């Protein structure tokens, strides 16, 4: 293999420090259960890539990577995650039998192919580096290209951006097919829906002497927790506390009188 | 260390992203794995820009970023639309065309 431009000192140290971390974070993305954790790990991978871009004399791209990817794109991902919430699709059980071994075999094949190809390929000359190209500054150099050689792709990409914004608006717009029921209609429907249990609204969460929060179910007259008094989201997340621990016989009721 | 190591790193990240697209079931996580693949390709472009000594690779990486941003906007809007009608973000549930 042709010896490429050797990078000594700080950049090599930076690479050997950050590259294993980014690969570990990318692997963690596959293995963690919660989608929010995947998003945070991906944000970390993108930040390491931004550092690599800056180390590779692509200062503008490094800054854009931080702003566009870790800033805008990951914020959008987290926003949608919060909107969609927790559901069963987060589980790691495989639904198609034998998919995982096949996927891992194919991945080892693809990765091995790519890495061995890179190992065998030679350029036939030394790498040049960007000192000359970045002579007038990285941003100036990029602008020179964007507005001369690549001006048509630049225009096309701007049209694409506007189209994407329009498309997102069309997709997110929700046309009502029936009018929103008024409060009066909602009340009538509640009373006519068969059982009168929910006619006055769902019960609120439990209020106890030592704990007063939405994560504890209220108690029914027979002492069992009322499931309808707790938000379904909290239940799905597993954040519901047991109301038994706040019962009076479990609580120290001796009062120390202050003089 | 040679510049090749950046290319190896990007190959590994690309492979991990490809596995994620196949293995994970949450549509949003699948989307994030596609983003990882795009980022890995960008690292290759930036590295080759340095090897070749011209800024063309960086310009193309810049275009990739713009296209990726568009893709995220439209893709997430589609996911939200599917979630609204099927109450699930799982890619296995969006199978109406099969039946």
From TrEMBL, chain B:
GO terms for biological process: ATP synthesis coupled electron transport. It holds the Pfam family Oxidored_q2. InterPro entries: NADH_UbQ_OxRdtase_chain4L/K, NUOK/Mnh_C1-like. It is found in: Membrane. One of its GO terms (molecular function) is oxidoreductase activity, acting on NAD(P)H. Its main location: membrane. Keywords: Membrane, NAD, Translocase, Transmembrane, Transmembrane helix, Transport. The chain crosses the membrane at residues 6-23, 28-48, 60-83. Gene3D superfamilies: 1.10.287.3510. It is a multi-pass membrane protein. One of its GO terms (cellular component) is NADH dehydrogenase complex. The keyword Transmembrane applies. Belongs to the complex I subunit 4L family. This is Unannotated protein. It comes from freshwater metagenome. The lineage of its organism: unclassified sequences, metagenomes, ecological metagenomes.
């Amino acid at each position: 293999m042709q010896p490429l431009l050797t990078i000594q000192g700080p950049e090599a140290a930076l690479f050997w420090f950050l590259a294993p971390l980014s690969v570990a974070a990318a692997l963690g993305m596959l293995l963690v259960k919660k989608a929010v954790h995947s998003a945070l790990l991906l944000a970390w991978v993108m930040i390491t890539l931004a550092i690599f871009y800056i180390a590779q004399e692509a200062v503008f791209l490094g800054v854009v990577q931080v702003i566009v990817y870790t800033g805008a794109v990951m914020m959008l991902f987290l926003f949608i995650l919060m909107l969609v919430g927790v559901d069963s699709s987060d589980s790691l059980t495989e639904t198609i039998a034998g998919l995982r071994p096949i996927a891992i075999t194919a991945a080892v094949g693809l990765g091995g192919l790519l890495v061995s190809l890179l190992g065998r390929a030679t350029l036939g000359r030394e790498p040049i580096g960007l000192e000359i190209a970045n002579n007038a500054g990285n941003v100036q150099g990029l602008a020179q290209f964007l507005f001369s050689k690549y001006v048509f792709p630049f225009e096309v990409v701007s049209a694409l951006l506007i189209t994407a914004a329009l498309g997102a608006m069309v997709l997110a717009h929700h046309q009502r097919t029936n009018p929103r029921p008024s409060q009066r209609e909602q009340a009538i429907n509640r009373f006519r829906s068969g059982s009168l249990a929910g006619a006055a609204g769902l019960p609120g969460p439990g209020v106890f002497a030592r704990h007063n929060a939405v994560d504890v179910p209220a108690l029914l007259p027979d002492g069992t927790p009322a499931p309808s008094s707790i938000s379904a989201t909290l239940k799905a997340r597993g954040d519901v506390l047991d109301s038994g621990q706040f019962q009076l016989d479990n609580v120290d009721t001796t009062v120390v009188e202050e003089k | 260390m040679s510049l090749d190591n950046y290319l190896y790193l990007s190959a590994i990240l690309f492979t991990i992203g490809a596995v994620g697209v196949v293995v994970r079931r949450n549509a949003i996580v699948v989307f994030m794995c596609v983003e990882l693949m795009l980022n890995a390709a960008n690292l290759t472009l930036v590295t080759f820009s340095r090897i070749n000594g011209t800024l063309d690779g960086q310009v193309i990486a810049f275009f990739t970023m713009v296209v990726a941003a568009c893709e995220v906007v439209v893709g997430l809007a589609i996911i939200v639309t599917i979630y609204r009608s099927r109450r699930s973000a799982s890619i296995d549930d969006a199978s109406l065309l099969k039946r």
